[in-house]
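Lab notebook: predicted structure, single chain.

Context: the supervisor wants predicted structures on file for every construct in the current expression panel, including those that have not yet been purified. This is the next one on the list. No modifications to the sequence; it matches the entry in the shared construct table.
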Amino acid sequence: MRQFIVEKGKEKNGLIQLDGKDYRYLRQVLRVRAGDMVSVRLPSGDLKNATVAAIDESARRGTLQICADTGRSITRGVQAGEVEDGGAAGSGNGAALVEYWLFQFLPRPQKFELIVRQATECGVAVIVPVVGDFSEKSSAQALQGSKKERLDRIIKEARQQSGSPVDTKVLEPVSLEKAIELWNEACGEIGDFDKLNHPVAFVLSERDDCSGNLRATVQKAGGIEKIKKAAIAVGSEGGISPEEVKLLEEKGLFVPVHFAVNILRCETAALYGIAAVQSEINN
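Prediction complete. Output recorded below exactly as produced.
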C-alpha cells in the first residue's frame, strides 16, 4: 500500500500544502486527481485518510484535506501506536512487532543505497554502517553532507512506496566496537535479562563451519511473542573477517549463521538475511 509521508510543518488546520518534489510525487507517482483519496503518514506516525482538495497545474501546487475519523478507513497500513504497543491483533505485520537493526559493513556507496532502500521496505528501524576490515575507507566519507540527504530521500521514497510505518534511520558510520556498544545499549533499554523481551542477533558468515542455528535461536528466545529487538550483521564486498565474527559473537552475543545457498552479493545477502530472520520470527 502506497502512502504519502507528510514532513513536519506541512500540515496546518487539517490541510496539507504540497509543492516541488512532493507535488511531482503526488501527480506523477500516485497519479491523483482532485477528489481522489490517499493515505498520508503524519509526522506523529499516524496514518490518515485524506482527500485531494485541489490541484493547481499552473502553480504546480496541491492541497490535501485530512478526513474526519468515521470508523471507516481506506488505509491498510499499521498505525504508529500499533508499532509502539506491539502491533495490532491480527494485523499480520510481523515487521511492526519487532524492532529490526541492520549492521551493514560498508560496501561501495551505490550498493549501500540499494541496501538502505530494500531494508526500509522490509521495515528495518535502524541501519548502522560499520567500517570493517574489508570496507573501503572512502565509503564512510561518501555518507556525509549531501550524500546523507540523498539517503533521507531514498528512505522517504521507499516508505511511501511500501507503506512501511517504521521511521527508518541511518546512523553515522562507526567502528565495529562502537556498533556492538550501540546494540548492547539498545538491548539494555528493554532489559537483557527480561524473560519477556529477549533480543536476538545474527551475523552472516561465508564460512560453512559456523554452528549457529537461526531457527533454534529464535525458538529459544520465544519467537514473536517475546522478541522485541532483532539484529543482523552483513559484510561488505569482501565479507566479514573471522576476527570480526568472533568479536560480534563474544561482545555482542551475535550468533554466526551460514546459509547453505549460492554465494551472494552483499546487497543480496542483506535482503536475504533480513527476510530469513523476519520469516523465522513471524513463524
